[in-house]
Design brief:
Blueprint lengths: L9 H8 L17 H10 L2 H5 L18 H24 L7 H7 L2 H11 L10 H10 L19 H9 L13 H4 L3 H10 L12 H7 L6 H6 L3 H17 L5 H6 L11 H10 L3 E2 L2 E2 L5 H22 L5 H34 L14 H21 L3 H14 L8 H40 L1 H5 L7 H13 L5 H14 L2 H26 L5 H7 L23 H9 L3 H12 L7 H6 L1
Helix pairs in contact: 2-6, 4-6, 4-16, 4-20, 6-11, 6-16, 7-24, 8-24, 16-20, 16-23, 17-18, 17-19, 17-20, 17-23, 20-22, 24-26, 24-27
Amino acid sequence: MEVLKYDESHNEIWKKLISQQRDGPVRFEQEGRNTYQRDFDRILFSNYFRRMQQKTQVFPLNLNTLVHNRMTHSFETSTVGRSLGQLVKQVLKNSIDPQNSELIGLIDQIDSIVCASCLAHDLGNPPFGHLGEDKKGKILFPKLSQEQENEKIPKEFEGLEELVIKDCAKKQNFVSQGDEKADYLYFDGNANTFRIIASQYGKRRGLYLSYSTIASTVKYPWGTKECEQKHSKSSVQKSEIKNKKAEKLSPYRSFRQRKIRHKKSGYFERDREIFEKIFTKLNLKGEDGFYRHPLSFLVEAADDICYHVMDMEDAFKIEIIQDTQATEQYENLHQESQKIISSFERLNQKFSTKETGKSNKNSSTGMGTTNSQNDNENNRDKNENEKENKNGNSIKNIQKIKLTQQITSTKQSPKNKHEEDSRWRKNNMDIDHHISKKRAILINDLIWVAYYQFCYKYTEIMEHKFFDNLLDSAFEEYKIRTKKKKSSWELFQEFSRENIYRGDSLLKIGINGKIILSEILRFFYTAWSECKPIKKEIQEILPIQFFPMIKQNKNIFSQNNDLPLTYILDFISQMDDFYAFELYQKIVGEKLQNSPTKILFD
């Protein structure tokens, strides 16, 4: 028997949160697919999604055909998100009155919503991986950004800043004036994703996704304007006072909110109207701003699981790290995840016994634990942690090391080179299988950790009092209970930052990608701001859909219809890596001898 402390007041909340409303033309709804499965199909067959096949996720695409690109990452994230949605859907359905068929029918579509949102979550990321996200604002406004005040402007940016600032005073329709300047100071892939899935070009184009799918994709329910305001000293001080009050109630409640509030945003200022329309319709508007959709926590967790775990395997495949390092990181995180899962199951069993008068070993998720139960779990986790520290390496770790040694060693000397090559391939296949198995086990562990944490924080989430990441908060709470300095989740991410993301190959793609993006931006901005024949070249490059206010191509560059910088950035952010490189070749006026991968990554 599953025990779930469900408040009947949540019925009406879920009826508003799960909305089939969408903008765009009304069409005949065919049977066999629900609204959110249509969302999934629209994303899958869109040009935006197809371009992600040649967009870098983390590692350069030429290093190994098996490394992830944005497309494969999105597919895997949608699969994990669907699993999380199915778990949450089932536990909610078991807690609702069976006679409430209308609500059960809505809850039954949660997994489809999460799956579609996961598939769309990276559509707005620009070329060259995470490089493009944080460089656009610095390219256009290298000194206006407070984060750059004390930094020296790279040579490739010199002169561009003066050009932009000079034209700010000349052109009234320049989008950097006023509030929309923040859109470029704090350009973010998340905000650009919202623009793609929620906005329409010229009111004729767009994905027209359902409101629930769009809202579930938004991790940060504030815009670029709020990011700019948060940088003022007075706003930061007020925010710190509020956060200190929150910390008295919960030592881990606001740690992540403080960290990302200044850097990330969920929508551009120019898209504020459509954002407020959608979130107001879903009843996500409060007195102090807008709230996250509850299902967005599942989307975020699925992204975190695939992003961190799969990057470790990719790093092993391209020989950035050793198999022993990957195995150790996977195993340590697996061990701690199992302890967290066990503690959740014990809490659920106690809650189930209290509610039903009997023990239920196979009970699923329970919510609403008491302080005394939490204290008992804290003591149990603390004792387990102390016992583990005394014993040193576990038996599983020893077996892991032995297995790795057996795989990498050869018992007999080969008779010839062919036998040696054959043995080498077999051993490496065994290592790959071993790492893949560890990775699969860990993904399953983290799915259950995220699911249990969602259920444990369910009341706070529905009351809009939970602000953190599900995985971060689960491991943070475990660290506090066991009085550890750092959780395995933190150590896992630190290892990735130090040994993977700061490697030579990623530094090279950062430097060369920065040059390519800055040159493209410089070209388009110069051509737009100055009335010169070069503007004819833009006419040949930019597709017509990026000029919604212009009916005929011949009027694009007239004096009264200047090309807004908004649509230039829309165009650039939707490029894939290789198209950006080819466009860079056209701009510099010569065909480079090296291939894109040579120029970008070697």
